[in-house]
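Morning, I've got a small favour to ask if you have a moment. It would help a lot if you went through both lines with me. I owe you a coffee for this, so here goes:
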Amino acid sequence: MNNIGKSPLKWLSRITILLSFFIFDSFWTTWINKIWVDPIVSQIKDNTWWLIVIYSVIISAYYYHNLKETEVINRNRCQAVFILAFLYCICLFSGKWDYVLICDYSRYLAWSNFIIIVPILWEACICYQLNHKRPAENIKPGLEIEKTNNVTDSYKRRAVCESAYKTLELCFYKEGSFTFSITGIWGSGKTTFINILKEQYSSKNNSAKSIIIFEPWKSDTSDSIVKGFFAMLRDELSNYIPNISSTIDQYVELLLDEESGKPLKIIGKSLHGIFNEDKNPYELIKEILERTKHKTVVFIDDIDRLNAAEIKEVLRLIRNTANFPYIQFIVAYDKNYVCETLKNNGINTPDRYLEKFFNVEMSLPKSEERVICNELLTRIQETVHTIWELEKEDTKITNMVYYRPDNPINSIIDNNLVTQVLHTIRDVIRFHNSFYLLAKAYKDQSAEKEVCFQDLFFLELLRYRYLDIYIILCNRPLLLLQLSDYVFLLDKDYKKTLQEYLDNTHVEIVSDILEYLFRNDRDKANAIYSLRGYYKYFMYRLDDKVLTVDEFMSLSEKDDAEMIKSANQLYIRKYGLEFENQIGELLAQIYKNNAEGRTIDYNEIYNLLEKLTKSNIRGLRDEIYNAIIPHLQQLGCIDNRHFKALLHLYDVVDFNSKTIKYFDILNFLMAILAKKNLAVKLRHPIGEEEHDIVYDFLSNTTHPAIISSALSSFKEAIENGDKAIIDDLLIELSVLSDIQLEHFKNEQNKFSEDGFTLFYNCISKTDPETHRVYLRQEALDIMKNEIQNNPQGYFGMFIRKGETSNPEFNTVLPEPFCIKIFGSYGKFEAFLKKCKNDNQNTIRVKNFWDLYKNNDYRPIEFDGQGNVQEKIDNCFINEIKLLYQLRYIKNYLNRGGKINDKLKRLFEKNDLYIKLRCDIYQMMRN
């Protein structure tokens, strides 16, 4: 009867068709003859028996296959077989047709009966098999899901829910809807609370007739939220209030501003307008609900899954567009998330904004620590019992869950640590799932006895909430730990490292976890703090693409060629940045010592790094450089020998590589040249030995151009800054200038970029007002002598361009100190005149100088006259032709020649904009 009530039209049609077989007998007989009997059956009556056999085999094969695959009875197929059998029996017993008989004893023993008998037998067989099928073994899954229905009231709030229900069931008003909000953080029990309310409202004694569970997060747009809600409201109310469906549909169309051209809708709207001339759909719905006093409760959960526009639409829905009499909205959401989302989308005061939409708000409190711990303890006891075979009541498990950082004895009362990481029951479920999965991985590898379950528990607790710190422990442990006698201890400055990743509150929580893990006064087998057992706790996450300390240090045992080959192979096989990270970790370990001395010999590491920089793989070299640079920038010195080794390590780095980290060379020089700064680094007074170390480094560096430029910046900063630093310098400024001059003298190719850099850094003084730079005469003399011996080398670098992105707009100028080198323009021109025109560089410089001289010795500017570099490459041949034209015009005017149109056209066509052209222009105007 329930099925008939749910779909009366379907059942009515079935009964009508069935009765028609008896009422319209002749009609069906005619059509069966036309469709089935005459064209098909009558044509194959002589071959009936073997066709029936083939049919039976095919049907039996289908059912046999289906019997092995199916899990439940196919009710639609059973109904179809029953209907066909029923219709066949009507035809068989009607006597209107003759059948091919199996034997002549009875007219009902026909071959065609097998068409129905075979499916019926198979259907009966399948039903019997499924009904007597042995139920699958009910194995409890190891992992949990976060349930939303039939959830246990873990927070013990049923009494509060029932009290709230007793109040809410009276809050139905004819003036409009009533809204009640349930707020709380993720996992605080909002869904459980709302489910208990649903249970109360669904009871038979409830005054509300309609209950709607609306889930707006299943809609993909704001309009679909409106459509979806009103579709549910329409379907629910239409069961109790006839003719309200069309009114709601029309209201939705008005809300969404939709116009439909369907004829039926046009007629419906017209009729609606005739009978309801002055009332809009909203007023009609409101009037109907006010008159019928039909009470409706709408539950809306998880609106914090929506974006800002969708949240606003739901709020508008419950307060404005669906603000009907005797409707109650009960909404659950994470208020912090909703407020943040609204604030990020233009709502400056989201709290005040939300107050406009809800009549009452119930904020669920923070989960009780005892509840969280009890829920976790129940699950952990089962897991530890299953994996490590301890009794569930073992105090080790209880003490672990109820661990107090301020009381290692572990009392069940006033626990803090676990509940500072796991805030809700959902956190407990998710954390336990992760812990169980990890523990099961060890169990499946028969390695569960190789790890301590307490350490694994707290390590997983760290990973759950603080993944960055977990990754550091996994891949770069020496940032937080130090190794002493094969035992990991917390580094004395580990909290400073934590502060780079966490705020102060979380630093304390993580510190408590790390203190538990690396407090080595506990008597535990296979503890994480032991060097032998440490990596076992990460083995399920590590693979052969991670570079270990042993793999890296094993390179030092090979000869140079084999070392480079092995390093290249490791670099190709490992993850990116593995060398950089591992080297950085080892360099940090240099400063940590144990009872027997230093943990790692810095000489061994530095020598290995120097050899590895000979690799032919650029990426490997850059990773090594990027690991060294922070180490140099830190400049932590153990003693003078280490200080000297560090300065040598600077020369190992290729600073010309474009993919290495920035190195603050000026800060580096300030650290080694200021006695006060260097004393801090070395932790002892500075004397002659330190002077010699720094002097030798600056004089013999393999990066003279970089050091020389840095020394120039350093001297400028000192002279323009605090003059008191001059007296504190380890090496006097004049000596630093001599070092720069020596670098220039020692440069083999003085006409290279580095050569000119070294030349320009040989500064004698700088005018403070004009900022004009004067070079040392010794450097000028050296350069002059070099030019006279090799003018072509100098001419190759003589012509300079300005910096611009437009190839047709630029300034061309000569080498800036050419006049200072030769003493005057005349002397340089005399030298230039002596040079033979036997190569492109000389011709290019002579042509340029001719242009430069006729521009009053000022840079030549080009603007839209063609590619400037092409002009330089072409030795300014076209520009020289234009210069000859200008000279011709000037000579003509000086001889008293008249200015005519031809002369004007020649002048205007000439686009060589130099001083000579301006002079001619003035002559033509006068």
In short: The chain has 46 helices and 14 strands. Residues 644 and 693 are 6 Å apart (CA to CA). The radius of gyration is 46 Å. Confidence is low (pLDDT under 50) at residues 1-6, 258-275, 409-413, 594-598.
